[in-house]
Every structure is written in C-alpha cells, then in structure tokens.
Amino acid sequence: MVSVIIFLGSPGSGKGTQASKLSDAFGYEHISIGDMLRKNVEEKSDLGLKASEYIDSGRLVPDDLIIKVVSSFFEDFVSNIEGKVILDGFPRTEPQALALEKIIRELRINLSSVLYLDVDDKEVISRLSERGRKDDEPQLVINRLNVYRDQTEPLLKYYNNQGVLKEIDGNKSPDLVFSEISELIKVEA
Ligand code: ADP
Q1: Which residue CA neighbors atom 23 of ligand 1 most closely?
Q2: Domain annotation for the chain: domains and CATH numbers
Q3: How far apart are CA 28 and CA 80, in angstroms?
C-alpha cells in the first residue's frame, strides 16, 4: 500500500527542509509542488508559462492546474505496490484538500499523518529574508503570508477534525525539529 505524509505550515516554516531530511533518512519520495513548479517555469513548459505570473506575485497557482499534476503523479505512483510519499506544498486550499481526499479514496492510499510546522511570523520573515529566492522579497512574503492565512490555515481545522493532525514547534533548529518529527513517524510505522 502507498502511504502519504502531508506537510502543512506557512511559507518558510521549514517544510522543504524537513521533507528532504525525512526522505533521506526513511526513504520517502519527496514531492515538492513549489520545486516542481519552479522547474516547469525554468523549462518554459505549458504549466510553467501559466504558473509564473502567480508565483511572481505571491499568489497561489489555480487549483485546477495543481490538482491535475498531483493526480497524475499518484496515478503513476500507485503502480508501485509499496511506497511512501511526502507531499510538501499540497494541499494549500480547500478544493485541493477535497481533491486529495478523492485521490486517496479512489487509489486506496493510506494518509498516515498530517504534520503541521508551527512557526511564528517573526521567525518566518527573518528566514525568508535570508533565503533570497525571487519570490522572497518583502512585499511578496507579506502577500504569501496573507494567502496562507486565508486559504491554507483553514485546512488545519479540517485535518484536526479528522484526528490526523500533528503539531510540531517549528521555531527550533532544523535538527531538533527533525528529531521530533522522526519520533512521530516511528510511532506511526
Ligand atoms: P513557500 O512554502 O515558501 O511558499 P513553495 O516552494 O512551497 O514555497 O511555493 C512557492 C510558490 O509556488 C507559492 O507561492 C505558489 O505560488 C506556488 N505553489 C506551491 N504549491 C502550490 C499549491 N499547492 N497550489 C497553488 N500554488 C502553489
């Protein structure tokens, strides 16, 4: 059976960092929607050409485009009988969460946990200003934090109601956060 971990948290909460560490340590397939989009932008694919204006203004790429990409990933991936996937950057909206629920049901995937990295805004802003990616300039960071509050934060309640949400203090150092997550994952396994 294929099982999935979802990472939730604001921009700069460390989802990508922790997902890479988990994938190295425990063999998860790390799917970063942001990395995948940036690669498409670089290659000027159809998706990349459509996505770039959204990314560059700190908005979310439209749900239908993102859902299509994630669905086709899982359709290919479930041909593996066994497999572990970390979804980093999906879902970020309620329609995306509903689409994922449908994918999980239809492809008989196990949603093993939803990890929420809780980080203070002050810490987020300081991390993103150091990272220096094109969409990390101050006004875009503010846009992305607002988009996160409006569209993604409601998902915390959605997954909490399903009893699968696990909250982690993401203000600590990457290694401390990683050991906390590792303990949670081991309990699951
Ligand atoms: P961060 O978590 O720091 O915002 P990401 O690499 O996860 O960085 O995302 C970068 C950008 O890619 C987002 O601001 C958004 O425009 C786009 N993006 C990523 N994931 C999604 C998604 N699930 N739905 C829509 N847009 C997305």
Answers
A1: 90
A2: 3-183 (3.40.50.300)
A3: 13
Put the strands of the sheet holding 29-32 in their side by side order.
29-32, 83-88, 2-9, 110-118, 165-169
Pairing of strands 110-118, 165-169: parallel
Whole-number Cα distances in Å, 58 to 52, 178, 183: 10, 28, 34
pLDDT in tens, 63-105: 999 999 999 999 888 776 678 999 999 999 999 999 999 999 9
* Beta strand spans in the chain (E): 2-9, 29-32, 83-88, 110-118, 165-169
pTM reported for the whole predicted model? 0.95
Q: Which of 144, 145, 152 to mutate to test the pocket of ligand 1 (most atoms within 8 A of CB)?
A: 144
- Name the residue with the closest Cα to ligand 1, atom 10: 34
Q: Which residue has the tokens 């971990």?
A: 5
d(CA 98, CA 155): 10
Q: Among the atoms of ligand 1, which is closest to the Cα of residue 92?
A: 23
* Distance from the alpha carbon of residue 108 to the mean position of ligand 1, in angstroms: 26
